[in-house]
Amino acid sequence: MIKRTEAIVLKNKPFADADLIVTYLTRKYGLINVHAKSPKKIKSRFGSSLEPLTYSNISFFGKEDASLPRLIQSDIINPFQPLREDFSSLTKIYEMLKLCLTFLPEREPAEEVFILLLNTLLKIGANSDSKIFRLYYKIRFLDIAGLLPSLDICGRCGTPPDTNRRHYLFYIADGSIICNNCAKNERNPFILSKGSLNFFGSILRWNHSSVDRIKAPEKLISELLELINSHINYIIGSKFVPKL
Amino acid sequence: MAYNIIDELINNLTKLPGIGRKTAQRLSFFILNMSDDEAKKLAAAIINLKEKARFCSVCFNIADKDPCDICSDPSRNKGKICVVEEPSNILAIERTKTFKGLYHVLLGALSPSDGITPERLKIQELLQRIKSGGIEEVILATNPNTKGEITARYIKDILKEYDIKITRIAYGLPIGSDIEFADEVTLTKSLEGRRDM
Ligand SMILES: [Zn+2]
Ligand SMILES: [Zn+2]
Hints:
The complex is a heterodimer.
Chain A: E1 2-15, E2 19-26, E3 30-36, E4 55-61, E5 70-78, H1 87-103, H2 111-126, H3 131-145, E6 167-171, E7 176-178, H4 180-183, E8 190-193, H5 194-205, H6 218-237
Helix pairs in contact in A: 1-3, 2-3, 3-6, 5-6
Chain B: H1 5-13, H2 21-32, H3 36-52, E1 54-55, E2 62-63, E3 77-84, H4 87-96, E4 101-105, H5 123-131, E5 137-140, H6 146-159, E6 165-168, H7 184-192
Parallel strand pairs in B: 3-4, 3-5, 5-6
Antiparallel strand pairs in B: 1-2
Helix pairs in contact in B: 1-2
The complex binds zinc ion (2 copies).
């Protein structure tokens, strides 16, 4: 049967001669892989619509249990072309897409994530500096997926952070801040400033519409982004992939 | 007869891209009916290709000698380098018979999703060719898709400091198509790439 939904291209990979397997995040069906016939041929009806980040209305055909539905149509809503014009910009955006590709199970609706990604791409497209939006996206994604680092209590004894301190110790392997009593002489903590700790708390309270109105110091954004990236790399590396 | 010599050929042919079981079967029976001489030539061509094919150390085209025929052809314009992703792209451009310069094969295109970073491509080698002088124009003929586009931009940026002309193949509407059916990205790019008449 034919299904229709809004979708964003996460990636595509060559298949057979001139075909592609396109991985979409869809509004209705979550993460899906579809088979697009002959998009590489010059006269293909798919045109540029299968390029990464393209936001479109798609129709695909496949039986309920078919492993690879066939793409029938894709009409571009927003190509997000400027976001994929240079290597460093696309590399940063790919870090966001990778979260979907790694943690979302196939064909399980994830509309909240779809809306988060779509809004983030729209914000990045409209602003010259994408850092705060990438940070917001990553934290929100981890929140939805139940993978947030724990910054509110010590991961070992449960004590809340001492508000008199100016720095806190975060241990990547614990995914948590650890109080000085528990950490003792353990090496290589991530030093987190009090400002970043509070900033993290406020990000969790924001919604999409307020994210571009918050002015945060560049230093805090960079510090948190570094911590979140290390946290993500650690959970991807440990292959801990929970179900949403 | 569960497994016989014709099955063996069929199974091997299905490993080729775009060849399904049915096509493989048809090809196998066609080969069976070939003259001995023709069939041996086909087999020899495959063996020859595997034994002699190597990358040209100058342009990374696939050739049977080094440098390749194109790089060592004195009639070609040594001031122009056309940069492509794959050796097969050279064959396509050569069929047009309109380009008389040299080539440079990157052996891929930048792709964050596949972990293809600049170091994995033959970009440093291109830079070396340009540094050694005599190049007037670099034509970026990577594919008109996201990977090809970011690769072209990346190379354009690193070549900025050299006094050479850098051009990008035009994006156009395919000949025989209709503007009404072109998507907005293709159409935007063709408008941007319009030229005087
Ligand atoms: Zn503790
Ligand atoms: Zn050569």
